Amino acid sequence: LISVAIVRIWQVTPFAVLIFLARLLSLPVEPYEAARVDGASKWETFRYLTLPFLYKYIILVVLFLSVDAMREFGTIYTMTRGGPGRATEVSSMYAYNLGFKILKMGQTYAMTHVILLLTVGIAVFILSFWKRLED
């Protein structure tokens, strides 16, 4: 399980870093100059300027990575095939085993729709934070 987590972190970190780097490079300079003139410390500058500028992008990265985690199959199947035992079996792998090994297509169909509805629910929940930031 730890090896799968390490591989997933290795896979998704560049995506998050690129999103944050793009936003950090496009931040306006004037508020930082004003904070420096007013005597703000580096921590205060980060907390009151940088972090609010990054809120939307943090939510965006969380949304993308949450949806990506819900559909994760390939890495886990390639590394562990769900084992040892069922230690790394995720919902998509369970649906795969149910459909193609046990041949219960009706249950597989229902399971994949539950996964879809859960993913959409998570996305709507995360996007509600985005909407709150715009208001």
TrEMBL record:
Name the membrane topology term.
Answer: Multi-pass membrane protein
Q: Does the keyword Membrane apply?
A: yes
Q: Can you tell me where the transmembrane regions are?
A: 7-26, 46-67, 109-130
- This chain's source organism reads marine sediment metagenome
GO BP annotations listed: transmembrane transport
Q: In which compartments does the protein localize? A: Cell membrane
Residue ranges of domain ABC transmembrane type-1 in the record: 1-126
Report the main location listed first in the record.
membrane
Full protein name:
ABC transmembrane type-1 domain-containing protein
Any one GO CC term of this protein is: plasma membrane
Key words, A-Z: Cell membrane, Membrane, Transmembrane, Transmembrane helix, Transport
Q: Which InterPro entries did the record assign? A: MetI-like, MetI-like_sf
Gene3D superfamilies given for it?
Answer: MetI-like (1.10.3720.10)
